[in-house]
Amino acid sequence: MDFIEQCKQIIEKATQAIDSIENEGQLVGFYNEFLSKKGCVCSLLSEMRSVPKEEKAACGKMANEARSKVNELYEQKKSKIEEETLNKKLLSESLDITLPGRAVKPGKINPYYLIVDEVTDIFLNMGYEVAEGRDVESDYFNFELLNVPKDHPSRDMQDTFYIEGEGERLLRTQTSAAQAHAMLERQPKTPIKLICPGKAYRRDDDDMTHSHQFAQIEGLVVDHNISIANLKATLELFVRKMFGEKREIRLRSSYFPFTEPSVEVDVSCFNCGGKGCALCKGTGWIEILGAGMVNPKVLEMCGYDPEVWSGFAFGVGVERVAMLRYGIDDIRRIYSNDVRFLNTFINK
Amino acid sequence: MKVSYRYLLNHIDLDGVSPKEIADKLTFAGAEVEEISPLASGTNLVIGEILSCIPHPDSDHLHILQVDEGAKNGVHQIVCGAPNARTGLKVIVARNGAKLPGGEIRPSKIRGVDSDGMCCSLLELGVNKKFLTEQQTSGIEELPVDAPIGEEDVLGYLHLDDVAIDLDVLPNRPDLYSFENVAKEVACLFDKDTRFQKIDPLESSPIHFVCGSETPKCQIFTGRIYKNVSVSKSPCELKELLAVAGIRSINNIVDLGNYIMLLTGQPLNMYDADKLPKNELIVRDDFEGDFVAMDGNTYHLEKGDLVVTSDGEPMCLAGIMTADACRVSETTKNIVVEAAYFDYASIRRTSNRLGLFSDSSSRFCKGVNPDQMEEVQDKTGSAMKRFVGAEHCYIANSYDTFPHAVKTIPLSFNYINDRLGTNFSQELILNTLRRDHFEILESDETSFVVKVPSYRIDIDGKADLSEEIIRILGYSNVQSVLPRTKLALNGLTDHQEKERQIRRFLLANGIDQILSYTLVSSEENQKFTYLNRAKPYVLKNPMTVDHAEVRTNLIHSVLKTASYNAARQNKDLALFEISDIDAIGHAGKMLSVVLTGNEKNQEGIAERPYDFYDAKGIFENLMAILGITKNRYSVRKWSFSDKEMHPGRSAEVYIGKKLIGFFGELHPVALKEYGLKNASVLALDLASAFEVRVGNVKASIPSRFPSVFRDLAFVVDEGIPYEDLRKEALKSSTLIKNVEVFDVYRGAGVDDGKKSMALSITFSKEDATLKDEEVNDAFQKVIASLRAKFKAEIRE
Questions:
Q1: Which of B172, B345, B587 sits opposite A151 (nearest CB)?
Q2: E strands, B638-753, in order
Q3: A194-210: pLDDT as tens digits
Q4: pTM, full prediction
Q5: Partner of B693 at 20 to 30 A CA spacing, among B292, B316, B448, B637?
Q6: Chain B CB contacts of A165 below 8 Å
Q7: Is the CB of A127 inside 8 Å of chain B's CB atoms?
Q8: Cα B293 to the chain's mean position, in Å?
Q9: Is the per-residue pLDDT at B609 higher than 80?
Q10: Which residue of chain A has the CA closest to B174?
């Protein structure tokens, strides 16, 4: 057969063969048949030796053409098959992306700590320090230094747990006891800015809104020339950070033995913005704090001359804020720690 | 304290001011109004007469009435179910469209018969059941025969058109337990004058009857005697006033005592004069023995209790309750009226000890005005004339050793404005105090002196006056001005910062922070006491045995919470709590962690039960966070024999000789007790851990030269701890920088009682690249020393 014809036949044969190749095995067969050392392209080239001289140029060109054409067919098919194989493999590796992720889930946190942390951070940012009182207090610090002498009528307001023996010890009925400690123990007498978050105890039957154990956050500022105006501004700042920029406060006259004047502080309802809703019982206001100017008698008993020093104090009920903010129906939930309840609360 | 709206209207010129407006003012001025409740309510009411009453053809209890509702309204047919409906009865009719507390009245057909209105009982007008007789609650109200038919102001006719304003009186304002003083307060808040009637004193004469006191705890004792009084029903007017205050009418004498108490705040006590052994009433505090009170109960009195005696016999537990023997009864003819001043602390102590409380004792405990006894007696006389018909009053010898000092307070205008942060003018300050019934004794450019009204026993300093000014003028007059304080480095203390870090770590590791009760039972306080053996604080007056002591440790509380949750199908739990612990001679913070059920990092796909090593891992990381390196503490085998911790799967942690923590798995007995399948716990005495001094951190600079790693498995006796192998291996050559375990194997190929420990050893040098022969040499040293020390064999 004519050499050139032979070349053409090989190209034609290879072009036909490549079409039917579907996998790597067949591809290897194709390679062996055409491109390996024993393949027909190679033997074609070896036949070049027997081609007459005058035809060599034309035949050589044709042979090279056949080789590169077959090679091209082979490479194209190869990359196609490789890609198909990879795609098949990737497809087979697909995951159910709806299965849960693998991770340590952040621990949940009792809302008590959320409120305490949030309030603490607000006052830390205002340059306050954090005082920590103790649960077991003396009568002296819990009552006497706070202007509640023995048999004082306001002792009826807070029925107290007393400790057996051990002098006059009791479970603190308010975190205000920390005020007395801070003032009395400070030497020399310098300005004070502190908050004291902590537990307190009263002989209340546990029900939806009462608990024998509860928590308060006490605040105290003592300095020269402190006034009600300072208290009002401080509480406004706090309330707006805690409950939203648009919150207003209003002060109502009240009574606490350790402050004079004393006020109850209402904040405009953070649920309805003051229009009136179920949360604020239609009034537009929510009672949130007790506060006042530190009673001069308290300052004096704690070693701060009331003619020179003045101060304000305030107290927030932690559970009350938690219940209002998170819509908790029963204070006992906070102390039961059912994890299905805690699951709502993630530490920020 | 419930105050009558009508009383206020009668004594202050409050043109058109509603109860709500009064309540709002009082609330902002310090006497919060809790409720405004009308005695009765109803619109479209009229007085009618039943003209005829025939049985309903279709019912065994209904009647068909024809009711005359007066000339203007005519006669209407009403179907009525009341058993006392009858011809000729005067009744209250709620006409069509009437709004009653229970709803609106509309024309209707009752079993086929038209009914046009409703005959009412007082209950249906919202009158409290406690003021009604059984007859009044079981049928319609029966009006007197002379009731005017067609009268539309039915509530007015019945003296039921008053409104009770219920004040929450705070302990500093006991004066507000008096209608008169509430009227003064309301007048002040609305800037109006009060108009009290002049007392019309009863004709009087002295009598030989001694009122006295043998104790400084009673400084004032006055008595008046009324003869030949007749005990009977009270007039409507008196009943209504008592009803507003929530007091049930008894008889004219008892009611009168309550009436004066409501008006003036001064409790009175009434004695049947003929039942007194002697013409005297003497207060003593040295009586001991039994006392039968008018409530029928016997109380044991001790020395120190104030007792009113006659001829040495107790006639009254002073300020609290009269003796049964001399109380005023239906047959009483002659009465002694006592108005006295007792020491509030004594009354409070006796009242609390006996658990015996009365309106009188409550007022004495809160404080009464000592400067109005004679005035109160005069008012009583005047009321005796009006309600009981008394015409003469005998005045007993009174006792009064009270100082009755006039209270005056000097202060400056600046003091007020500085304290409030206001800029009130001198005139405004003085006028406000005058409104508040203070008298200005003197004043100049800078300062002034006020006289405190005698009933304001709460006012005793200039700070109180600043409060008076602002509560009357209103806190809305105060600007907001942030305090100007000096800059100081405050913020969290070192310990507080450490606590926060620990909390953040535990939360980030999926452990929930809980809050449990501080008070536990004494039995609970015996559990897991390893970290604190101090005696607990025991409550003198616990409410329940479950909350009788202050907890001395924390583990039990967290386990109890786990147990509570497990019982509610919440079985996979990781919980922690940090709490202050107070015990006798011990005060500090503790941390407890409880892990129970499975650790689930991908729901249930890769779950695994918590075990010893989970607790240990958390513990080690906590120490690392606190900067306490491993050489600062030692972990030792469990040495306690209580059936609380698994003896082979628990460890104690010491710093020096002090046990500062422990971790491990729960003993099976304890597991059963808490209803848990498995549990790993960790307890740490944070207070002690915080105290550990931590040095500055120094960076460790890694070697420039590559490390070499070699793995090797040793077979050793089961009892040989990994830590011993590790330490020995580290010691055997200075080239060895780290030893880590990567497998522990028991089973085929390893003899019983032995285990294979596979170690990965890191060799390196700071100043040069390691040569093969150096590594081989060090490697051989490890093998040799482990073989020598532990008979460790290389596992091929």
A1: B345
A2: 645-655, 658-666, 679-684, 708-717, 736-745
A3: 999 999 999 989 999 89
A4: 0.86
A5: B637
A6: 538
A7: yes
A8: 31
A9: yes
A10: A153
